[in-house]
Structure formats: C-alpha cells, structure tokens
Amino acid sequence: VLGNAHVSLFFAGGQSPGSARRALAAYAQAVRGRGVGPGAGPGGVAQGGGQWERSPQLLQYLERFQGALEGLSRAAELAPGWEEPRKRHGNLLEFLNRLC
C-alpha cells in the first residue's frame, strides 16, 4: 500500500525522483517482509500483490529497462502459472527492439 501511495505521489506531484525511490523501496520491503521467494509459491507472488506488477512498471517508466526486465523475469520464476509477467517481459523486449 505504501509503494502504491508513493507511485500516486510520483504521478500527481510532478514525477519526483524521490517519490519513485520511496515507492521502489516500499515494494522491496514488502517482498522481504512477506517472505516472498521461490518457496512461497504462486500464491505468495499473486497475493504479495502489486510489487511484482508495479515495481517493473515504475522502472520501465523511469527508463530503467534492465531492472524492469529482471523484475518481470523474477515474477515469472516465482509464479510459473501467472502469464502476466511473461507477457509484459515480451512486450518490453519488443518495445526495446523497435526503439533500437
């Protein structure tokens, strides 16, 4: 929830780099606090919620593409049945290929 609030402030407050940093830190803390990891299974990722979706989105918006790709890959590893991270990973790679 805290990460989402900082993302909202990022967009509402003139895209402050500080809000982006705080959002990413809050998402990272949420992952650590929930014990989300390879042993947590798909429920830990899907219910661990937004950090696996929003953190890569925010990194992509900040043009930190490598971090976004790594986050999406990690989400796909942790929840093999969840199609969304693989789809977004492919879309981002396609975008970067067109950009280059």
Automatic annotation (TrEMBL):
It comes from the Eukaryota. This is TTC5 protein. The lineage of its organism: Eukaryota, Metazoa, Chordata, Craniata, Vertebrata. The gene is Ttc5.
